[in-house]
Specification:
The chain is an alpha+beta fold and 461 residues long. 34% of the residues lie in helices and 21% in strands. It is built from 11 helices and 19 strands. Strand 11, helix 8 and strand 12 form a beta-alpha-beta unit. Helix 1 (3-21) runs antiparallel to helix 3 and helix 8 (221-236) runs parallel beside helix 9.
Amino acid sequence: MHIRNFFLTVASIAFAGAIISAPVSAQEDERMAGAPPEVVINDTSETYRQLNLFGDVFERVRSQYVDERGDEDLVETAINGMLVSLDPHSSYLDEDDFEEMQVQTRGEFGGLGIEVTMENGIVKVVSPIDDTPAYRAGVQAGDYITHLNDESIMGLSLSDAVDKMRGKVGTDIKLTIRRENSPEAIDVSITRDIIKIQSVKHKVIDDSIGYVRITTFNQNAESGLKKSVKEIKEELGDHLLGFVLDLRNNPGGLLNQAIAVSDAFLDKGEIVSTRGRHDYDTKRDNATAGDITDGLPVIVLVNGGSASASEIVAGALQDHRRAIVLGTQSFGKGSVQTIIPLPGHGAMRLTTARYYTPSGRSIQAKGIEPDITVEMAKIEQYDERRLKESDLRGALENPNKKDASEEEPEKETSEKKKDETAADDNKIAKEDVKDYQLSRAVDLIRGVSLYESRLMETKQN
């Protein structure tokens, strides 16, 4: 069959199926019933004409392009081209990309349990994760991994090296390691196991303030938050003055986890609304009773790397006056992507809605403006700027564009990756003493606590 006729036949079947099965609203149904017959026919003819054009181009590339390309490769590229032209966040995911996305949102995978980065073309161990195969095998921070199963990793990207270290639970891999002060290479055989990404970490500051950092909103975010708050309460008891929730450089994740984390701090009211193309796509999520912090002061830290789910949490707590948002303007990704599996062909990521804070603000291409702007100390700043949503080609416009700020705050960049997706800045380490924004948040909690205690004393007197 001629390729053009093939596409036309497939398009006819698909188009007919869409008319039969696609749900329509009452307004759409009424409009279609009252439309002149020739209008529907003309629209159909135009659809066929455009699909016929695609068939012509496909056939020409397939037969005349300088290098032979497979049909599957060409079709996938065409599909991805259509999706990425819509906005920066819609795309086609092949089977490998789809699996990787599922790994990230599940927060667990088969691997070794090491946080790594790339240095001079060699994979360097930032640290082994406690109670993981790598930790038990004696892998140490600062080790350089030069070979995997006797194959040199020189020339591989960090992502490729990470992919090789991951694998089916129960399978073995041999790492060749170079260690400082060790003249000989060290061979270590490690059996892969289930590794859970710790998306929430916490500590106590000055024996009075709880610090909780959420690095990504995977499936463990809500449970990790509740566990961290519980442990902080048990450690400090009546000495606890408040909490710092650190969402800096958190790129987002699952919408339901952002809602759950927000709900943990709120007793009532709307958390977020999502509004799609049609009125019936509007959805509102509301808080349930119960505040895990028992009403203690909360400071939310954000910066230019705080995006999507992070902005939902910051916006909800800010609008309800439940927390003070401190830091710099957030990224401004106010759109929702739906992952639609394509059996046998990966999945498509499609932007299906915008989300709005409880007060009705769209932060698309605008971001969350902090209540108190605190820039990083100069010692912490990077020379490069991180792009924000409004800088991306094809970014959706903000519905309230006239209110959008024109200022472009400085933002941070980091090339570290997490876990065996590799290490980022979520480690709670000694460097925190240089964290100017965190220091200001701690001072603010102390000030609020002092003010409230003095107010209470005045009322009692």
